[in-house]
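G., the chain you wanted modeled:
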Amino acid sequence: MGSTGIRRHRTRRSQSPLQCPFCPLLPLRETGSDRRLDKEFFQPSPARIQTGGYHASDSAFDFSGDDSFATLAADEDSSFRLVDTSAKSHHYNPNRPKFNPRWRFNPHNARSQLPQRRDEEVEARKREAEKERARRDRMYNNRSQMPQRRESSVFKSSVDIQPEWNMLDQIPFSTFSKLSFSVPEPEDMLICGGLEFYDRSYDRITPKNFKPLERFKNRNFFKVTTTDDPVIRRLANEDKATVFATDTILSTLMCAPRSVYSWDIVVQRVGNKLFLDKRDGSQLDLLSVHETSQEPLPDVLIRDGNKVAFEEPNPFANEGEEVASVAYRYRRWKLDDDMYLVSRCEVQSVLDINNQRSFLTLNALNEFDPKYSGVDWRQKLETQRGAVLATELKNNANKLAKWTAQALLAGADMMKLGYVSRVHPRDHFNHVILAVVGYKPRDFATQINLNTSNMWGIVKSIVDLCMKLKEGKYVLVKDPSKPQVRIYDVPQDAFENDYVEEPLPEEEQVQPPSEDADGVDANAATNDVEDKDTSNVAA
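Predicted structure as tokens:
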């Protein structure tokens, strides 16, 4: 300790690196709004520079004399990399071929420059092949379940065109759609036959509460052509009309644009009269559903002996012969000032409504295989009756239109449509009634888009065309493959020697196979039931 009383301490040698940079915290000097650090400490004075007392190593930030940071600097330099910040794709491949137009049309650059991804291409092709195979399988299965559309070449002409026949004219169906003709209300010339009353209990039938359809072996149904009708011959001799036909023939002409199958009508020009006939065994009397039974629904009638008799009996039945319930209304329409048309129209039943008798027509829609139509009546009739009718209108438009036209011609107040189905798809003998629905003919005609003025326009045009022909025999044939009709001039003896094969009796026909599990013949039991007395039906 000195005299000054100040103790001097021995300074210990610092272990820190030499020339360690140190920046003191200097006060801020404010000049106006600018604030800056005082740089006097960092800048050497001019006096020191002139006297040589200043050296670069005297700077507070001189690290040349210290090797402590050499290793850190070397490590940082070794990890440094130059990065190109220009915008390029992350998937840039310098070996990728350039698909310019010149490369595309160069045959030498076909596949040699493409990237090799054969494994992925093969797998993709396999997947596409599997999808195509599955699609073809689905189409094949759908076609096997649905009915195949038959080609027009399958259809055959309803009559064999002979080489000596002379074709006079052909009329396309497109011209029929533009025709229109209005006729006044017809008058009844005569009513023959007898009618049974309709059983209203059949209106309450449902698919769950169906009734079997009886088969009648003793009742006769007559399909007599125009010139073989004794009543029409009598009316022709009395000059009651100029044109004579039946409701079946007229309905065929009226609904000709809807027809697909071939049909033919024989035209006979005798004097100033015109007769529209059909051949024996003609297609006009056959239904397009290929059912063997052609009669309407006689099972929905009350067979208690109470009938409505008209002026004359059935003109086609022999004395004591049992005939079906049918009434023939011979009605006359005025086509022109000096031209009248007489037609024989049929009604099958009568019904008392509000103390007034109403005429009914009865027809049956047949279901022989639900897989063919795609709609099962037993499941859809009770809940979706409209869908069933729409399907029938699609598949049998011509048949339903002809039934409606016949009901309009006969002046029927109601037309009854019965839904009749086979007991088994392979059994064409036994049927059941699933439902019976009634429609007013005019309302139903509007529903199926059947125009009465167009119907009579077609008849009027055909009649005017035939009245211009000479006396003789002609045939009007619908082309089997085209929507048109042709008129042929045929000899007088044509169709007179046609051989018509009569159907075999039911006893000689092949019976359907039995479906009973016990091996009992179901048809034998059914025939025994049919032979019993089933004439009493509850009204």
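The mean pLDDT is 75.

Shout if anything looks off.
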